[in-house]
User: What shape does this take?
Amino acid sequence: MENKGLLLVLSGPSGAGKGTVCRALLQNNPSMVLSVSATTRPPREGEEDGVHYYFLEKETFKKMIEEGQFLEWAEVYGNYYGTPRRFVQEALGRGEDVILEIDIQGALQVKEKIPEAVLVFLIPPSRSELSLRLVSRGLDLPEEIEKRLNCSADEIKLAERYDYIVVNDDIGRAAGKVEAIIMAEKSRPRYFKRFFEQFLR
Amino acid sequence: MENKGLLLVLSGPSGAGKGTVCRALLQNNPSMVLSVSATTRPPREGEEDGVHYYFLEKETFKKMIEEGQFLEWAEVYGNYYGTPRRFVQEALGRGEDVILEIDIQGALQVKEKIPEAVLVFLIPPSRSELSLRLVSRGLDLPEEIEKRLNCSADEIKLAERYDYIVVNDDIGRAAGKVEAIIMAEKSRPRYFKRFFEQFLR
Assistant: This one.
C-alpha cells in the first residue's frame, strides 16, 4: 500500500445526503478525486455526461459487466449503476485519494474487491427526517419514495458491516466527521513505511 | 461495547512528547479521563503522588502484580511501572473515555487484554530531533540518553502493530490528529446500536 491513495466509499440510503456531503468534502479537499459512476438511467435535468454520470446504453453496460470492467454494479429499480474499475485503480496507484459515492450494496462489493477501502455509512438523524428529505427533493414519485423507505430499513441493517457511521444532522458537521475519518485513516501504519526507513537509517 | 467509553493508549519512545500531547488533549477534551500509572521510581521534582504517578514501594508493586491488579506493567531501567486495572475498567464501564500515556511494550500488553483499545504511536519527526529532545529536557544522564536512543530503534519497529501513527512535529498539529482519531473511532458501528434500534422502530 506504500504511497498509494486512500479509497473512501461514501454510502447510505437514498436521501441520506451523500451528494451534498460529498460536494462539501471535495470543496475542502481539492486534491481528492471523485469517481464518476456509469448508469443506464436517463439523465435528470442539469446532469452532464462524464460529470455526474457516464450515461450508457444498456447493451454497452452489459458488455462492460461481462468484461469485468466494474468494481461494483447493480440493477436498481430497473436501471444499471456501476463504478468503472480502471479510473479508480489508476488514481489510487498514482497516490491520489478517491471518493466513491455509491449505494449500500455497491459499497460492500467494493470492500470485497479492495479490502483497504474505507466504508462510511451516512444516515439521516431519523426515519421521519429521511422521509421528509425524499419528499422535499421532489425527484421521486410517491410510490418510489415508499419503495425507497421500505428498502432503506433493510439496507440500514447492513451498516454494521461498514467501517464508520456518520449521522447527517448537519452538512458541515457530517463533512467534518468524514474529514476526521480521512485524517485518522491516513495515520495507519501502512502509510509510514518510508518514514520509518528514513528514521532508522 | 454499547455505551462504553473509548480507551485511547498514547505511546511512543521516550522523548516523543507523549506528556505534552496528552496535556493538550485533556485541555481540549475535559470529559476525557487520564489514567494515573503506578511506579516504584522516586518522584522527580514537582511530581505529586496520585497526580503524576502513584509512587509505590517495590514490595507493594510486586504484590499487586501477583494479584493481577495491573492492565500492563514492566520493569524499565530497574524501576517498575504499571497501569492499575480497576480505575480504567470502571471508568470505561461508566462510558467515560480514558487516556493511557504509557510505554511501547505496555501499550501492546493493553491491546492483548482489551482488543478494542485504540493504540496511537507518537514519534518525533527524526532521530536527531529525538536525541535533541532527550538532551534538552535534562532529565537523563548522558549514558541514559544513549540507552534510550538505542532502545528506541528497536521499539520503533513495533509501531506497525499499532492502530495509528502520529508524527509529533508540532504539538497542536499532533494533538489535532489524535483528536481526529478519537472522532473517527467514536464513529465505529458498535457505538450506534441504540441509534439503529430507535431508527428502525
In short: The radius of gyration of chain B is 18 Å.
